[in-house]
Amino acid sequence: MSVEGEIMNVLEAINGRRSIRAxxxxxxxxxxxxxxxxxxxxxxxxxxxxxxEFIIVRKPEIKRRLAEAALGETFIEEASAVIVVCANxxxxxxxxxxxxxxxxxIQDTAAAIQNIHLVAYSLGLGTCxxxxxxxxxxxxxxxxxxGVRPVAIVPVGYPAESPSPPSRRxxxxxxxxxxxxxxxxx
Length: 186
Ligand SMILES: Cc1cc2nc3c(=O)[nH]c(=O)nc-3n(C[C@H](O)[C@H](O)[C@H](O)COP(=O)(O)O)c2cc1C
Description:
alpha+beta
């Protein structure tokens, strides 16, 4: 957690952030949500098209329906706010055709989502990136128009758990030198 008045080191945030799936009932202020969105919009995007859209959900009934759409992940309902991050496929298509629609807008949105996670963590909040949800159901609940795709449901709240870090693949298994080889380290 950040110490008041000190800015958390970026590596500390990257390494310390965890997916949080239990939240306290404490309210997350509108100012804090604004900080998260502000961080999101400074993410890089292909051609600076910024194809992201953010739906902030506070109403318990909408959170409940989103939790249902997310295959019963009920901790979504516990979160003070839920940010549904969408990719505006139309904007990216206009700039880059099918590559923009199918790839860039997802990459751009993912970068924005990661910024939300890191800044939330640096402010002492917990978040979880939820990708497993029935897209059509989420679309209907939130009135998302055609050409805009919901990419992630991100519950935001004060954490009520402190999970230990899940393991990561070791560097020597994921780095390839010069060409892609199965045996990576000489
Ligand atoms: C694209 C994506 C989709 C995910 N979907 C879910 C999900 O539907 N439900 C969930 O509980 N966690 C989900 N997660 C969180 C991952 O389970 C989590 O990031 C991973 O286990 C590593 O744990 P950590 O975030 O604490 O480092 C998702 C993460 C990503 C990046």
